[in-house]
């Protein structure tokens, strides 16, 4: 077994996966979830990962996040920062205000109180929630809660964002607005993003590059650059054309496995 998440500096790669394999369980019950996945994410690149249900997308993200260990191969992150993680559920602390939720990573980083307040205000402005700091999560809409989760993730000051279906539970209009917001923040902060989605249109709307994983065990079977100028519209013909191409590949793959 080789290790995960070492930290050499590299100007050209923010996240590097080399021959990553993941096996859950042992013996007769062993499940090969990922098989020899190699992928480089460049600094400032937005990469979307798509694939059929159960192909190992979340597994891959969890491995990059350091939440689990690879069974083989290696994952390397440039610099020392831990990547920021966002899921479909915002996972906010319900008993804390919005301000206090965003403040959590700043407290963990032991920033002095005055600096924390300044940073929280700045982050809430960034996600357009400047007036909502004193609310509690249950007082907000689903889209607003995801904005708080994004602000909290940005508070880590990490250059790498890992997102697992972050907008999967939102209605189309809210998702559309959050795509614009995420694109703006990604571009302003020059983030490297690894974004998992079932939604190929979302992938074509957001990505510099789309990676398609095979059905289990997950292997990279297709990759395409998305060279559509930004900002993009999810309903544009260019986005639709890329989405159609990826959908066709996905359909072939799912058909091959009789799912
Ligand atoms: N802890 C675990 N123990 C055993 N098998 C697991 C475990 N976690 C995931 N798996 C299996 O590994 C495979 C990949 O799971 P994973 O959740 O990464 O897929 P996914 O592509 O994210 O799926 P979905 O799109 O449905 O969310 C699945 O077959 C899953 O059942």
From TrEMBL:
GO terms for molecular function: ATP binding; ATP hydrolysis activity. Keywords: ATP-binding, Nucleotide-binding, Transport. PANTHER family: ALIPHATIC SULFONATES IMPORT ATP-BINDING PROTEIN SSUB (PTHR42788:SF13), TAURINE IMPORT ATP-BINDING PROTEIN-RELATED (PTHR42788). Residues 15-240 form the ABC transporter domain. The lineage of its organism: Bacteria, Bacillati, Actinomycetota, Actinomycetes, Micromonosporales. It comes from Micromonospora ureilytica. This is ABC transporter ATP-binding protein. SUPFAM superfamilies: P-loop containing nucleoside triphosphate hydrolases (SSF52540). Pfam families: ABC_tran (PF00005). The keyword Cell cycle does not apply.
């Amino acid at each position: 077994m080789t290790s995960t998440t070492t930290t050499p500096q590299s100007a050209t790669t923010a996240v590097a996966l080399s021959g990553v394999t993941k096996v859950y369980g042992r013996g007769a019950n062993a499940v090969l979830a990922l098989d020899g996945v190699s992928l480089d994410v460049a600094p400032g690149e937005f990469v979307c990962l798509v694939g059929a249900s159960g192909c190992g997308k979340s597994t891959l993200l969890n491995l990059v996040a350091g939440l689990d260990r690879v069974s083989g191969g290696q994952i390397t992150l440039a610099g020392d920062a831990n990547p920021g993680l966002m899921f479909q559920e915002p996972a906010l602390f319900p008993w804390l205000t919005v301000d206090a939720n965003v403040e959590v990573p700043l407290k963990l980083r032991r920033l002095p109180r005055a600096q924390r307040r300044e940073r929280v205000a700045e982050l809430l402005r960034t996600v357009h929630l400047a007036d909502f700091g004193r609310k509690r999560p249950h007082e907000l809409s689903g889209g607003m809660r995801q904005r708080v989760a994004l602000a909290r993730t940005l508070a880590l000051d990490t250059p790498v964002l890992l997102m697992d279906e972050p907008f999967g539970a939102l209605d189309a209009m809210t998702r559309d607005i959050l795509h614009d917001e995420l694109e703006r923040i990604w571009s302003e902060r020059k983030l490297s993003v690894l974004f998992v989605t079932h939604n190929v249109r979302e992938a074509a709307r957001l990505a510099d590059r789309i990676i398609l994983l095979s059905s289990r065990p997950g292997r990279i079977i297709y990759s395409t650059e998305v060279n559509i100028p930004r900002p993009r519209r999810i309903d544009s013909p260019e986005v639709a054309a890329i989405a159609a191409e990826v959908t066709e590949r996905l359909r072939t793959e799912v058909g091959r496995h009789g799912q």
